[in-house]
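Incident review: delayed structure delivery

Summary: a single-chain prediction request sat in the queue longer than the usual turnaround. Root cause was a stuck worker, restarted by the on-call engineer. No data loss occurred. The affected request and its eventual output are reproduced below so the record is complete for anyone auditing the incident later.

Affected input:
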Amino acid sequence: MPLIFDIALTHIAGRGRQTLVAVIGVAVGVGFSIAMAALMQGGQDDFVRQLVDTMPHVDITDEQRTARRQPAGDAFATVAISGLRPRDDRRGIINQTAATSWLESWIPGRFAASLKTQGVIRFSSREVGAAIIGIEPEREPGVSPIVGNFVEGSFSALAAGGNNVLIGDTMASRLGAGFGDTITAVSAEGLTRNFKIAGLFHTGTTARDEGEAYVLLKSAQILSARPNAINEIRIKLDDPDRAPAVAQRAEAELGYKAVAWQEANESILEALVVRNVIMYTVVGAIMLVAGFGIYNIISTITHEKARDIAIMKSLGFPESDMRRLFLLEGVAIGAAGSVLGGLFGVSMTYALSLVRFEIAATGQEMTRLPIAWSLMHYVIASAFALGSAAVAGYLPARRAARLNPVEIIRGAS
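Output delivered after worker restart:
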């Protein structure tokens, strides 16, 4: 076996320039594959993290997953019911005290009840549509992403009581209002109430920054004429992956629709899976192209060393040694390319992690490219490289093993 290694190294060294080109080809393929995987995986992780951080892991609302059965259907053997006049049901989640107590007893995380109603926010002669959300200040910090995103004022101002409101800085800009100004909230029921702006937040999510206003739960209940009502319970779990099981149990017990964050973003998560498939397909294609270079080198060596092969076989080397010889040459080139490619991949990934750019229209926010450092990226890229190198080396090796030494020696004489 050591003799086979020596012969393989001699063959590779004998074509130093071509070998170097093949090694560089593999290294570039491995390096770019690692950098691309780190960038795409980092972007995916950052996107999922934002989903998990900015929305509740489980959202329980006063909706029903399926339509309620009509009382007429229970009283009569009807085939179909038509012409029913919908009842104005604005009760929200029934038995909210019992529901929250039950959730408190087993939820592995935190939750907060709220009342969300649609309305209009007015200031001077301007107005914008908004979701007016009544919250409990003592529970909201456990589930809300806005608590740490205030550019003026703070979330604690809401807990101080009074007719205070927290709005996004984008909404304030559209209204022409500022911190400390008094705005008017108009509910869908036509009720109005004045609130003082006690805080301006900026989350980076346009829909939230320009379309949500937070007030005390009691103020929202008065504004919407729904005393003691809630219509949403938002849950943040210690382990976000447990959201589907928690949502299923909560919906079965409470009877209200409970949606896990995975269900709410199912199409997005499916798109990420498809993107990963595309990414690794591209990685495989890059390694396949590098494999052609290795195949060309080994094929050339096989052709040029036909006489050497004949002499070795005539000296008693079996066909398995011939296959092993040229297979080792291909794998050696692939291994050298993988090592250099790993170093190249580290350098490229580090360089990408240093890139900074502005994303805010105001030029105030800076960010870096999301990068995921994972050993698995190096393992996968190296495995593709070694696999393609093994295949590229095996095909000429099989041909070399089948050469007839008698015909080669006769042809050379």
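Verification: The two ends are 30 Å apart (CA to CA).
Action items: add queue-age alerting; document worker restart procedure.
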